[in-house]
Amino acid sequence: MKKLAMVVLSLVLLCSMVFAQAAAEANSGKTTIRVLNYIDMSEPNSANEIAQIWDKFSAEHPEIEVIREDLFNEPFHQKVEAYAAQGNLPDVMYAWPSGRSETLHKDGYLYNLKSLLERDGLDKVYSATSMADQAGKVGYVGELPNGLTATSMMFVNTKVLRENGLEMPKTYADLVAMVPVLNAKGIEVVSMDCKDAWVMQSCLFSLITGRFGGADWADRVFAGETDFADEWFVKSLTAVDNLYKDGVINRNTLSIGYGSGRGDFANGKSAFYIDGDWACASFQTDVTTGQALFAPEAQKTDIELINFPAFDGEVIHESNSAVVGTGWAIAADIDADKLEAAWTLVKFLESEYAQTWRLTTGASFPSLTTIDVAKVCEEYNLEPLVAKRSDWYNNIQVATPVIDGVLPAAVFEVINTVLQEIGLGSTTVEKGVADVNAAWHAYIGK
Fold it and tell me: Fewer CB within a 10 Å sphere, N or C end of the chain?
């Protein structure tokens, strides 16, 4: 009995402490907000982001308590869908302007930030592209973007080219000619990390469809002027089929998880590597470890950034697939007493401080027009790859649609599957065209 009494007394004391702590927090005036963050903790500077962004916000805003959940790639998107289905979205979340966040935009899960931006006079300090209507809704900004994202960057290991007597390619035929030269030494021509189905579609095929379909292919598709059985799409899928058949891209790339091949590229196992522009950050120095896939000196001499070379028969040249970048959103059903705290966080995450920090790490280029990129590069003595990335944007003469940024999931998911099947050699271009076109007509038929 004595032991039982002691246990009961301990439980009473514990409950008293919990209730006292809860009461103290309630009286502290703190507002607690839940955040779903998108971050790859294996990336250089990811750990530093916690200190430079999240810890700094907490230090500057002690009145706001942030409960943050960190996820990346498919686990992130799966969690978003699960939260949405449960009606339990976090107060603040990372989001795409369309495509991967289609459910959030289409079903009204995101707060329209337009009124808050106008109220605080911020609609004029972000680029016009960033403030454009999102998800086809007039007067709607569902997420405040980091900037404009070009989804197909071609990294060149110039050391590999030099050592093998090769020059920078200007055409697709130039890449094909490199295959026997490089393969003889066990070097791949172009590497990608295509195990995740979205990679080929977003990071190369979107560029290809723009080259053969023109910058307005999506507008014409939605207007009913063309569909996916027409020549431009047939040529686009044929180009991907040729990439594998010609040996420019190895079929084994379909077994490589996203981001896993960057080290091999840096170590000279391929001459080229294709990813989105955001991958620049992967090759720069991690300030927490001092390590880099390309040290600053090597960035000067051994790596360059180009657009994919010209295809025979393409209708536009030096184009790239681009979309308003990812950014931060607020749940539409957020409690009224939490809205201002959530908006304070979103403004901080897209502030001059945060966007400048992302620029210095190579994570993204700013959507704020008040940031002078050249000045930042000079003042911070940024690594050569940052300046090369800035110059690379100037070489994009035409921006074309990103497939999963303009098409519904019912269609782009079929495209993703077809691209993987073509890569595996398990389907034909003709069958792929038929599958995609059928998915499109089924979608518009609804």
Answer: N
pLDDT digits (tens, 9 = 90+) for 85-125: 999 999 999 999 877 898 899 999 999 999 999 999 999 99
Domain 150-321+398-445 sits in CATH at 3.40.190.10
Residue 168 tokens, joined: 């920078």
Per DSSP bridges, beta strands 398-400 and 319-324 are parallel
Spell out the SS3 assignment of 59-73.
HHCCCEEEEEEEECH
Q: Which two tokens stand for residue 215?
A: 């910058």
Which of helix, strand or coil describes residue 399? strand
Residue with tokens 């490589």: 256
Structure tokens at 277: 């522009």
Pick from 129-133, 247-251, 253-257, 385-389: least confident? 129-133
CA proximity to 204, closest of 430, 421, 403: 403
Backbone angles phi, psi at 427, to 5 degrees: -145, 170
pTM: 0.80
Split at pLDDT 50, 70, 90, the class of 364 is confident
Distance CA 192, CA 22 (A): 51
Angle value at C-alpha 415, between 257 and 235, nearest 5 degrees: 110
CATH architecture of the domain with residue range 31-147+325-371: 3-Layer(aba) Sandwich (3.40)
The type of residue at 115 is S
CA angle 236, 240, 241 (to 5 degrees): 110
Token look-up 């791949």 returns 188
- Reported as a single tens digit per residue, the pLDDT across 300-351 is 999 999 999 999 999 999 999 998 889 999 999 999 999 999 999 999 999 9
CA 445 to chain centre: 31
> Which residue in the block uniquely carries the two structure tokens 């990129």?
373
